[in-house]
Amino acid sequence: MQNQKQFPCKIGDQNFTIELSTSSLDLINQEQRISFKLSLKLIITWVFYGDKIIGFKVENLEVEGTTEDMSKLKMSLGCLATFKGILKFYTFQQTIYLNQNNTTKVCQLISNRNYRIYACKCYKKCNRSIESIHEEINLILKLQGHKFIPMIYEVYESNSCVYLIMEHLYRNFDNDFTDEEIKIIVYNLLLSIKKLEKLLIAHKSISRSHIMFDEDNQLKLIGFSNAVIQKTTNHEFELDIFKVGTLMYKLYQLLCKISYKKNMQGDQDQFPEIPDFGSDLLKNLLENQSYYRFNMDAALQHRYFNSLSGDGIYKEIYSMNPKFKDKIEESQSYQTKNFNTLLSLTKQQQYFQVDMSTELQN
């Protein structure tokens, strides 16, 4: 089988070989084969001796192996199964974002293994079914490899929460954006929607709270809890386009301190004056898509975006300009300055026996 990995192990006093593929985890010896189908429903609890992994429990079996092999197995599994015991691997640092109804939270964690910083989306199981949470995570897995989707690494579960470990992300909506930065955000969002539409996926919840940035300042789209797959209707795609227009308007409202009110007659001409034909693009994005479907390719080629690159240069996903990056570099500098203190603190907290879900929920 292609991409199959093997690791020696023991169950009791019997020698086995773990065979790992993208679809199953098999425990094999000359007499028997024990198979587990890989999915987020499969729960694996790692067994430790001190701070070293020496095996795992799956269903009613306990499997032993060397620390090196078990660490490699865990890394190879990634998001193919759900792990228990997040506190053994990560330490909570701070909350990055908490949604209005307090059902999900994005936190910043530090790894107890490599001391790198990660983002973690925490889902409260009391507010959503485990099936719904798994559907969202599987959708994000399906989209891995697209530049606008965060990289995800592992999934953990406690009694009260599910935790999705992602690349370290930043939220930079505390300050007003420049005209160029707004163009980059709008362009990246339209390009993201186009790629989602090709996969028959509608996001349905595009907003400032669902936009983050990575260390290279590239836009990352999160918040797929309301996304619709395969059975998506034109109306749902139209909603995504409209929401990009709404976000564009709000960003310019912050930039220009403009105020727009639709009059009682529904006059569609009262749009803010945005440079570089931006007003025309905004009007098209906010147009009633039921009567007039704005062509996505036409939107991406709109004159409003001409200043982002020279003539004849194909536009890919853009990163923010150096001015914007300064905000991130300042944060990184702070983290570097405090690395040694953080490292020491992390080591002290590795065996602090509390349910991490308490930290992430409060």
Explain what this protein looks like in three dimensions.
The chain has 362 residues and is α+β, with helices and mostly antiparallel strands. The protein has three domains: 5-84, PH-domain like (Roll); 86-169, 2-Layer Sandwich (Phosphorylase Kinase, domain 1); 179-320, Transferase(Phosphotransferase), domain 1 (Orthogonal Bundle), CATH 1.10.510. It contains nine helices and 17 strands. The protein has helices at 67-77, 130-142, 179-198, 234-256, 278-286, 296-300, 322-337, 339-349, 356-361, and strands spanning 5-11, 14-20, 24-28, 33-37, 43-49, 52-58, 61-64, 82-84, 90-98, 104-111, 117-124, 152-157, 161-166, 201-202, 211-213, 219-221, 228-229. Strands 7-6-5-8-12-13-11-10-9 form a nine-stranded mixed beta sheet, with helices on both faces. Strand 6 and strand 7 form a beta hairpin. Helix 3 (179-198) packs antiparallel against helix 4 (234-256) and helix 4 (234-256) runs antiparallel to helix 5. The relative contact order is 0.11. The model is unreliable at 258-269, 310-317 and 322-357 (pLDDT under 50). This is Protein kinase domain-containing protein. GO terms for molecular function: ATP binding; protein serine/threonine kinase activity. InterPro entries: Kinase-like_dom_sf, Prot_kinase_dom. Pfam families: Pkinase. Residues 92-362 form the Protein kinase domain.
